[in-house]
Amino acid sequence: MKKITLFAAVVMAAIMTSCNQSAPSASLKSDIDTLSYAIGMSQTQGLKEYLSMRMNVDTTCVDEFLKGFYESVKAGEDKKKAAYYAGIQIGQQVSQGMIKNINQMIFGEDSTQTINEDNVYAGFMAAVAGKETIMSIDSANSYVQTKMEAVRSAAREKNYGDNKKAGEEFMAKVAKKDGIKSLGNGIYYEVLTEGKGEVAADTSRVKVHYEGTLIDGTVFDSNLEGEPTVFGASQVIPGFKAALTTMPVGSKWKVYIPQDQAYGSNDMGNIKPFSALVFTIDLLGIEK
Questions:
Q1: What does residue 231 show for φ and ψ, rounded to 5 degrees?
Q2: N or C: which end of the chain has fewer CB within 10 A?
């Protein structure tokens, strides 16, 4: 799982400048004075957008932001105050950023489901404090890596179960069609044009015209009207790869791919989780 950085915003915010109960007044008596003031101003470019978009701060409350900011930068050598303000900053990043991102990653568009925020905070705080924890940090990392996908798949299967069922019914009908051949792993194909050339290996780079559709015929990707695409035979979904490394050059096949040989539980925008896919593949050549 990709690690989520909590501290990027802290670094950015730390280089800004402004006010508090009594805002500092600028005195431009020397080049250094003027340069200092200009640096302060220049570092605010994009800040309001950052606060609003990334930190969920209501920019009509800018006075409160500046108050907190100035108290923080003036904490100086007071380690307790510096730690407290850092905690506020990180807390905002976790609650407004990390939690939302993880929920989106696991539950997708289902806003009714969420991870247990109190448990997230309990685990975070116990680990940072060095207190006795329910599991070791290595065990926690391992559990996240192994369990995250299982929980995500279960959540998506709940939301997209109908899509999965429709795909299974579609593939069952395909298997019974005349002229259909099997590539194994539930993948089927029919030959539109019989090629006589060589067959690509896993390591080959192939030149292809193709079109991908959902089972209802909706086109989600196509280069049939343009130039062919060149890519590695192993740089595509398993079902597409199985066809590329079986069909001779010069062949044109219609390939039917079950969801587990396509994108599985992943949400790919136009391709929803558990979608069976259909590709028309015209293998034009193998790049030497």
A1: -155, 170
A2: C
Who's near 88: CB < 8 A, 6+ residues apart?
68
By residue count, the chain amounts to 288
**β strands within 73-176, DSSP E:** none
User: In whole angstroms, what is the distance from residue 65 CA to residue 57 CA?
Assistant: 9
pLDDT band at 126 (very low <50, low <70, confident <90, very high): confident
Task: Extract the tokens encoding 61.
Answer: 């409350």
63 membership: H or E segment, kind and range: helix 62-73
How far is the C-alpha of 182 from the C-alpha of 162, rounded, in Å? 25
Query: Tokens 């990334």, residue?
Result: 54
Would the pLDDT of 204 be above 80?
Answer: yes
Evaluate whether residue 144 is within a structural domain.
no
Which pair of structure tokens corresponds to residue 193?
Answer: 């044009």
Same domain, 194 and 271: yes
CA distance linking residue 174 with residue 277, whole number of Å: 12
| Same domain, yes or no: 54 and 94 | yes
Residue 22 has what pLDDT? 59
pTM: 0.62
In angstroms, the CA 235 to CA 227 distance is 19
Q: How far is CA 206 from CA 31, 135, 142, 242, 267, in A?
A: 62, 48, 38, 13, 27
pLDDT, one tens digit per residue, over 57-73 is 888 888 888 888 888 87
The total number of structural domains that make up the chain: 2
CA angle 12, 17, 22 (to 5 degrees): 145
Q: What is the rounded distance in angstroms from the CA atom of residue 246 to the CA atom of residue 253?
A: 11
d(CA 225, CA 266): 28
Asked if residue 68 and residue 16 are part of one domain, the reply reads: yes
Residue 243: CB atoms within 10 A of its CB come to 25
Q: Which amino acid is at 48?
A: K
**Is the same domain home to 171 and 87?**
no
